[in-house]
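Running this now, will post back.
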Amino acid sequence: MARRKRSEKKRILICTEGTVTEPQYIDSLKQILGTSGESVTIRTVGVGRDPVKIVQKCMAVRDKAIDPFDIAVCLIDVDTHAKLKEALALAARYEISVVVSNLKFEVWLLWHVVESVSHFESKQLDRMMSEQKIFEKEKSLSPKFPVENYKRACQIARRANPKLGPGEIGPNSSTGMPWLIDILTSK
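Update: finished.
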């Protein structure tokens, strides 16, 4: 099989609500998937808490890129964001895919190590994250975090909501991360 030419690489921009956890997870996932070279180039940008600003930053980075991105994605939590629906509408208007995690991205991380698909309150989810030692300090992933369990997490996420795609808000607990994993692993 011939190597892909540089111009044939799939270029993906991922802008995240989190400035530590999500970029760290995506970077670790890139290493596990081996997407750092041959078929996919991923640029991760941690933005902050306002979902509209995350979409706007994604638009700005995408539109200023010299080498265009094939896909632009935002990772956003449901949390208590008053502007989430506004962000989803803006993203749809400008062809940006939004992966929504309900209650927050941590549910996706938890599914790498725990099978529970129950409804979570934020403090309960934080406690479970602590019990599982998912974070080393603050929001930094433990070096022992099993990113390689992403397939297991996908199975659990699909049990929680089998058809959740980009731009959709699923029930608590759910995430559209399996859609992104499918994008990252497709050749």
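The two ends are 13 Å apart (CA to CA). More later if anyone needs it.
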